[in-house]
Amino acid sequence: TLAAPLFDVSTQSTSQTLRHMKITCQDIDSDGFLEIPVSVDMPGSSVADNSAVALAAANSKDESAPTKSVYYTKWVKFRDDRLRAVQYSVIDEDAGYILSIPSSWVGRVTVLGNEGQWDFYHWNSSEEKLGNLLFSVYYYDKNDEQAKNKNKNAKLLTSYGSTTYVYTITDAGYDFGVKDDILTSNFNTTILGGKK
Fold it and tell me: Which end of the chain is more exposed for a tag (fewer CB within 10 A), N or C?
């Protein structure tokens, strides 16, 4: 008999695995089993929404550029009749990357951003207030000399296709515990296929 242990018959849904983006199950930890991506609210986040639907709606109403919230993605596996968290990440669908983050950052880090740049800030959850800038991730076309000059002090994350991804960490970020190797070893463009 086929069973769906997470399916709620009363609501006809599986809310435990609800997600706000088109990302599928993946073997994130390379153990041979698929992990399920689940969206978790990221308080204080706001990034430019460059989807065709959002841009068309904003243009028709003469509104400023539309924004959307960002979500942490909690990667879970189903074991012993429970969902167990394996890893957390932040996903920029437009830029085509996934940044895995330590679980201790969940609820303590938020994102503000525009196309080409996401800024990661400390989030003070008790005061629901934005704190210091911790680090930034930028991406640009590798042939764009102006962008290269603008980001000349940034460190390379990777190049994928025609896109270069770089980052900077602030002093407050280092104090918070952000390290170069946390960003470089947990940054992935191959799962999403890079910038769209």
Answer: N
- Distance of alpha carbon 52 from alpha carbon 173, whole angstroms: 34
Q: Is residue 130 part of a domain?
A: yes
**Taking 50 as the threshold, does the pLDDT of residue 115 lie above it?**
yes
Please check whether residue 69 lies inside any domain of the structure: yes
CA distance 116 to 70: 15
What domain range is 41 assigned to? 15-188
In the chain, the number of structural domains is: 1
> What dihedral do alpha carbons 31, 33, 34, 40 form, nearest 10°?
-70
Asked whether residue 26 is assigned to any structural domain, the reply reads yes
- Residue pair 97/165 in contact (Cβ under 8 Å)? The answer is yes
pLDDT tens-digit profile of 52-81?
A: 554 455 555 556 667 888 899 999 998 888
